[in-house]
Design brief:
By secondary structure, this protein is an alpha+beta fold. It is built from six helices and six strands. The strands form three sheets. A two-stranded antiparallel ribbon has the order 1-2. The protein has a two-stranded antiparallel sheet with strand order 3-4. Strands 5-6 form a two-stranded antiparallel ribbon. The longest helix is centred in the middle third of the chain and has 23 residues. The protein binds zinc ion.
């Protein structure tokens, strides 16, 4: 990962998902979901699939498609514009992909507890449903007003503006903006 998590990405898996593709200076892109193997690692790191999971290309594609839909929803939310109907339906389909209700369980006659079922055949569905659930709850909550896109070009990562008027996702992006401004001022003085 070329950048640390943006503010809010550790609390919201949907921000983390959208930020799994990073635009870097010099027309470079880093994509954590570039292959089935890296997609599996990304999901294991976030405990969205068990450690022995092995995702196929088909599952990777579904996750990349959901990322695209969630990014469209974030963009619609921050710009106050209508979301594309296909994206909205895609997020809702992911929400319904797996039951996200923790079931009641009891082990060894001890106290009851609740836990999600993770049938091996539905690993991807559970990951998709969890990520879509986070996106849906974030976008429909007051926190949505804090959602913003990094203003340090070419970065397109999203963040939660929890620290006042912060406009960028990382120190590195902030430094780049400040360096660009200083350069512009210097040029102006020279002209
Ligand atoms: Zn940034």
């Amino acid at each position: 990962m070329p950048l640390p998590p943006s503010p809010g990405a550790q609390q919201h898996s949907s921000i983390d998902l959208v930020n799994s593709e990073i635009q870097l200076p010099g027309n470079k892109t880093f994509d954590a979901l570039a292959s089935p193997e890296s997609t599996t690692d990304w999901l294991i790191d976030r405990e969205l699939v068990p450690e022995d999971a092995q995702l196929q290309e088909y599952c990777q594609n579904r996750l990349v498609t959901l990322r695209q839909y969630v990014r469209q929803a974030f963009s619609a939310s921050t710009s106050g514009t209508p979301i594309d109907e296909v994206a909205l339906q895609g997020i809702n389909a992911a929400l319904l992909a797996a039951p996200n209700t923790p079931l009641l369980k009891q082990e060894g006659g001890k106290g009851f507890f609740r836990a999600l079922e993770h049938p091996a055949t539905q690993l991807t569905e559970h990951a998709l449903a969890t990520l879509a659930e986070d996106a849906a709850s974030l976008l429909s909550s007051d926190e949505a007003t804090q959602l913003a896109q990094c203003e340090s070009e070419p970065c397109t990562r999203y963040l939660l503006r929890t620290h006042g008027r912060r406009h960028w996702c990382s120190t590195r992006c902030g430094d780049r903006v400040r360096a660009a401004r200083a350069y512009a001022r210097k040029k102006e003085r020279q002209n």
